[in-house]
Description:
- The protein is α+β, with helices and mostly antiparallel strands.
- The chain has 3 helices and 14 strands.
- The chain has helices at 7-26, 29-52, 205-210, and strands at 67-68, 73-79, 82-87, 94-96, 101-109, 126-132, 137-144, 151-153, 160-161, 166-170, 174-179, 184-186, 193-194, 200-204.
- The strands form 3 sheets. The protein has an 8-stranded antiparallel β-sheet with strand order 9-5-6-7-11-3-2-13, with no helix packed on it. Strands 1-14-12 form a 3-stranded antiparallel β-sheet. The protein has a 3-stranded antiparallel β-sheet with strand order 4-10-8, with no helix packed on it.
- Helix 1 packs antiparallel against helix 2.
Amino acid sequence: MLxxxxxxxxxxxxxxxxxxxYFSKTLPGxxxxxxxxxxAIGFALTLFFFIFFRDPxxxxxxxxxxxxxxxxxxxxxxxxxxxxxxxNIHNVHVNRSPLAGTVTHIDYKPGGYIPAxxxxxxxxxxxxxxxxxxxxxxxxxxxxxxxxxxxxxxVSDGTQVERGERIGMIRxxxxxxxxxxxxxxxxxxxNDKVRAGExxxxxxxxxxxxx
Length: 211
């Protein structure tokens, strides 16, 4: 399965590859070599886009009230109720809701493209999504990386989202921050690898005490 909005990227590059491939076979001499070179680049980029825009099916782990990761990647920071997950270029870049709730606010801000793991990335393009869980407020911030040129949102104010439901994507390298309600506690650590819509990242404190 491919992510929403990916068909124009893949289709455009596939068309470029087809056209350059045709001219590489029909034009003479050095011109054909040039077009073959362009064909090779187009073919490689088409394959890359197919891999990058993949959107595999995910089955959430844990219980319904366990918060799952919004992104594929590596945990790079945990502070109080906030967690940061860095998405490398090879990760799936579709983001998912950690818990079920209602989107109450979305705040998109354009900005620069400093590497998303950098402490100064607060100036980067970002999309802040607030979700009312009924039992508290959960906040997700999608942050663009150095190669990213657009954050794509699949939700809007008032959207009801399910646990693990797709809420958007960030193109070509990025970071996702999550602020959980104070009734939750993280169960992952820095440098842990997580998978969007699958890995449990936080559970209610009452559940930890029960254990």
